[in-house]
Design brief:
Structural class: mainly beta
Order of helices and strands: EEEEEEEE
Helix content: under 10%
Number of domains: 1
CATH class: Mainly Beta
Protein name: Lipoyl-binding domain-containing protein
Pfam families: Biotin_lipoyl
CATH architecture: Beta Barrel
CATH superfamily: RNA polymerase II/Efflux pump adaptor protein, barrel-sandwich hybrid domain
Largest sheet: 4 strands, antiparallel
Organism: Corynebacterium argentoratense DSM 44202
InterPro entries: Biotin_lipoyl, Single_hybrid_motif
Number of helices: 0
Strand content: over 45%
Strand order of the largest sheet: 1-8-6-3
Radius of gyration: 11 Å
Length: 70
């Protein structure tokens, strides 16, 4: 499952690949002009791949992280 940015901004990861997360865990944040939006794990699982570099510019709707069942 892909976790996507809600709007354009800078992504900052809070977890590393291989980390087990529970529903609602903050896995990353998207920062735009004085606004931070947390990206939450939609369900329990294991963090897969980071799809872009930490502190990279991302577009709204862009997948930034994968979450695998586990």
């Amino acid at each position: 499952m892909n976790i996507c940015a809600p709007f354009a901004g800078i992504v900052h990861y809070r977890v590393d690949p291989g980390t087990r997360v529970e529903t609602g865990t903050i896995v990353a944040t998207i920062e735009a002009v004085k606004l931070d939006a947390p990206l939450l794990a939609p369900g329990p699982g294991i963090v897969g791949q980071k799809l872009c570099a930490d502190y990279a510019d991302v577009e709204g709707g862009q997948a930034v992280l994968t979450l695998e069942e586990g």
